[in-house]
Every structure is written in C-alpha cells, then in structure tokens.
C-alpha cells in the first residue's frame, strides 16, 4: 500500500488560491480585504513554508511571529482568518492533521485603550449641546446613533421609507458603502443586521418633520453624489467632546455607549444583541465583557443579600 503524499505547495500560495475559490465575490469587500491582508502577512512571515511542513509547531511559530508586533486580540483575529482554510486543507487531504489544534494565542503589550463609551451624564451633556436645527444635519446623525446604536454605514443608508411611524421603529435592511468614491447602497454586515429598531416617540416625531420633503428612497443625511468621510464626522464629534470637557469618543463609540447604557439598565444581553444586529450573543458578551462582569458582581451582592434574609 503506497504512502499518501500531502501537498507541497507553499502555504501562502495555497491560502491565496483558497481565497480565490471561497471568498472572492462571496464576502463584503472590506472583509475580503482582510483575507488578502492576512495572505500578504503570511507571505512575509513564512515565505518558504510548504504545506507538508505545516504542523502544530510551525503553525504556533507563525502565530508567535505575528504576535511580536500585534496585540493578543489582533493575533486571535489573524488566527481566525487562517484556520478556516486549514480546516478545508485537512478535509481535502492536503494536510495530514489539523495544526491549529490547541494553539496558544499570544500578543505584545496592549496600548492604553481610548475610552469607547460615555456614561449617562456625559452622554446627556453631549446631546443637550447638539445643534438640532429645524433642518436635518450631522448633529441629528449623532443623536440618532446615540438613541439606536446603528452602525455608521447603516445610519448613512437610512431613507425616509425606512421610518415606520405607525410601529415606531426604524427598519435596517441595507448600509452605505462610503469607502468608495462613488458611494452606493450595499447589504448589511450580516443577516442578523437586518432588523427593526424600536425608537422613542419623540425622536420619531422629530424625524417625521425633518424628512417630510425628502425623496423616499434616497439617503436623508446627504445629497446623492456627496462623499461622506468617517474621519470628518469623527473629528466633529471629538471637537464637541473636547469643548464640553467630556471623554472623546468616536461615532462608533456612540453605538458602544448605547449598548452599555442598556446593559446597565438591566436590558438582557440577548435583547441588546438583537438591537445591535449582532450574529449572536457571544459577540455582545465579548464586546461588553467588562460591563457584564460588573453587573454580575452587583447581582452576586443581591443574591447574597437575599440569601441572608432567609431563615
């Protein structure tokens, strides 16, 4: 019986072929760019590594090399982008066994993180000082994200027909590709991102007036053909925060603020995950683990207090 021969193709070339086969035209451009970035990094880290040399030790060495210049969370993301292709290589008989089994994720010392969200008092300070004029402007954009937790691209894509005033909700079923010169509508990040977000009565009435004369299927915050930059709006929000003496956050930080305050108010992780359009509650738990742990500590105090009352 002849011994089975495994692939001797260079690893970075195999990974490139795998991207072409499984990811081209199958994922969003921004996601595809990440796969190609990983491929270039693999070529730089281990340009001479062949598939038949890809065992657990060599794979761990790849991760260790990458971790020398990247934080642990980034290294984990790098690993996730690689392992799907390796699973396929094992299934296709190109590798003898899975080299990603029981890997250790390392990383360089994390930089001091910028605050991601505001507390209730600081958020109220920001919202009270927004220029909410009778005409729709970017300050209304900030208010909307703070009250809904929409992603930047989701909020940009909103049109008048997305506002359901009878049911008091905003329908999210698309996003706006603002990264290309000719911006255009595109699908949401994932299937779970297609959702209806309940909004308070006051905000719905305010927007009913603001969008009354807007074209039903056109974006409400900018004119067609106008280029929108995430960095420009983030600078505007940063300037507001600095002038008010509150922590500076990004527009995505308004989404974090929205979710954090809901969790502090006792809203379930499942409900917050659904409102944010997360794929599952695991994503929500990992993103807001510090808050969830804090709430668990408070719950434990309540549990112990309750138990002490029992006779």
Describe this structure as you would to a colleague.
The chain is mainly alpha-helical and 311 residues long. The chain has two domains: 11-91, DNA polymerase, domain 1; 120-294, Orthogonal Bundle (hpI Integrase, Chain A). The protein has helices at 11-22, 29-45, 56-67, 72-91, 120-128, 138-148, 152-156, 201-210, 230-244, 251-264, 269-276, 281-287, 289-308, and strands at 163-164, 169-172, 175-177, 184-186, 195-198. The protein has a three-stranded antiparallel β-sheet with strand order 1-2-5, with no helix packed on it. Strand 1 (163-164) and strand 2 form a beta hairpin. Helix 6 packs parallel to helix 10. The radius of gyration is 24 Å and the shape is globular.
Question: Which structural class fits the helix and strand makeup?
Answer: mainly alpha
- Name the helix and strand elements from N-terminus to C-terminus, one letter apiece: HHHHHHHEEEEEHHHHHH
Helical region count?
13
Low-confidence stretches: none
Describe the secondary structure blueprint for this structure.
Layout: H1 11-22, H2 29-45, H3 56-67, H4 72-91, H5 120-128, H6 138-148, H7 152-156, E1 163-164, E2 169-172, E3 175-177, E4 184-186, E5 195-198, H8 201-210, H9 230-244, H10 251-264, H11 269-276, H12 281-287, H13 289-308
Antiparallel strand pairs: 1-2, 2-5, 3-4
Helix pairs in contact: 1-2, 6-10, 11-12
